[in-house]
Amino acid sequence: MPQLSSARYGKDNVRVYKVHRDEKTGIQTVVEMTVCVLLEGEIETSYTNADNSVVVATDSMKNTVYVMAKQNPVTPPELFASTVATHFIETYAHIHAAHVKITVHRWTRITIDGKPHPHSFIRDGAETRNVEAIAREGSGITVHSGISGLLVLKSTGSAFHGFVRNEYTSLPEVWDRILSTEVDCGWTWKTFAGIYAVKQSVPLFDQAWQASRDITIRTFAEDDSASVQNTMYKMCDQILAAVPDVAAVDYSLPNKHYFEIDMSWHKGLKNTGRDAEVYAPQSNPNGLIQCTVTRQQNKAKL
Fold this sequence. Notes:
Number of helices: 6
Number of strands: 12
Oligomer: single chain
Strand order of the largest sheet: 1-2-3-6-7-8-9-12
Mean pLDDT: 96
Radius of gyration: 24 Å
Shape: globular
């Protein structure tokens, strides 16, 4: 007999835009995000017996996101995701877990003649701020925050040598190379007891995002990188030190390659090694380096 082992369902790609208007100053602030809601609970019969009486319609989930955005702050996204997730497990007795993912899209205020414009913004890149909050009945709220789409490059200060060589190896060792990646960085908060605990931590969320972004950029730029692996570990270590309430930090960094072009065929033109100035950016295949770094657990004394 077949058995339904796990199930969740919901609404994806809910686009939300909210504007805050300060009547005293005339300054407007905007937030645009994409929301995904997935629910778990006593919903097996909707799969096995075509019983829709246990189904909260995904259109109702979409409407809930809009209403919650109207009635609650949407910043920081950790708070809004936790608020929406808590709503679902408190509103529906048969729903025992709610997963809410939020992707916040960048709108940066335009500066005109050195002055920030009160209501005009520019999309200055594909970088996003990401959050996933999971509210489980009786188990509190877990929150994972992150950054995606942060494209960085440095033209020197990176090496890669001393790696395993055998009959499958064609990659030459290099002591100076271009290093570029699209940062996908995340940090997992210690579990919150409930929505009240999340609200108490609101000031920490923006601080952690800013610290993680600054550490990522600064370490990428300043580290004399022996490998992507070592550089990303240094980033994780610094974020754990900067944000005590974070339990784990993770990175996923694709290695965006730039290859030298041998032009010796053209009148002996030198463009390799120390003479290299013109490179061919590569799309794929590419290296992909990932890691998760957690805090060391203290061993119990015997």
